[in-house]
Amino acid sequence: xxxxxxxxxxxxxQERMLVPLYxxxxxxxxxxxxxxxxxxxxxxxxxxxxxxxxxxSVTGVxxxxxxxxxxxxxxxxxxxxxxxxxxxxxxxxGSPGDAAGARTPPYTVVTVFEPIGCRxxxxxxxxxxxxxxxxxxxxxxxxxLAGWGPPERCATSSVLRVATKLADPLRxxxxxRPARRDDLEEVAHRAGLKPDGSGRVxxxxxxxxxDSALRGLLSTGLFDAAVAATDRKQVTxxxxxxxxxxxxxxGTVWMPNVFRYLIARVP
Length: 267
Fold this sequence. Notes:
It comes from Streptomyces collinus (strain DSM 40733 / Tue 365). InterPro entries: SAM-dependent_MTases_sf. This is Methyltransferase type 11. The chain is an alpha/beta fold and 267 residues long. It has a single domain (3-152, 177-205, 256-265), classed as Rossmann fold (3-Layer(aba) Sandwich). Helices cover 36% and strands 23% of the residues. The strands form 2 sheets. A 7-stranded mixed β-sheet has the order 3-2-1-4-5-9-6, with helices on both faces. Strands 7-8 form a two-stranded antiparallel ribbon. It is globular. The chain starts with a helix and ends with a strand.
């Protein structure tokens, strides 16, 4: 699949499904003027844009150049006749280590809104990312981790099982797995963070039609292992069948989900 088209599907279809999560966390942490926010795995920048609209200064880091290009379109638009870039915004490709210099004030909030607890190995992969980011956060800074809720509270879990059904069983990393209760707490503990509250947020996945649902779900990367083990056509066929119970009479697709978030503090 064309990587630019996939990133666009994420930006235009899938990313907005997590808006209730972004709003809840920003409200709880009182993100606003004076907040210096570092968004890890910032994707195409919707959560950063929402924080910016509340008055925060934002820095986004992502390793996907296609998604980061879309974040630049949102957050650093090139206006007519060379209009200056929007103040209070920085976007960085690659490592959190490149997000701040020696004279940069410490960040007060660090977010990782990409949900973990649904793909084998995703929680472990956060350790290196946090290790590079936390030295740039101030004492007591809030670190926000997000994850999928219990499978019985996430209708999309039944659809995501297609990823496990079709993936090569010898390729453990990258395959879907059910979320565990303490996924987020384990990540925080390994990073040396002190948990300071958590919550659950309803984030239903709603799509205009089955095609939009397919494009949105495939843009997450959760089905990459299945596509590699079979092919995109087979995965699309199986996904279409799995989505059938969630199609409404008007053709829309609706899947209620619950996501968790954990707030931890930098010691």
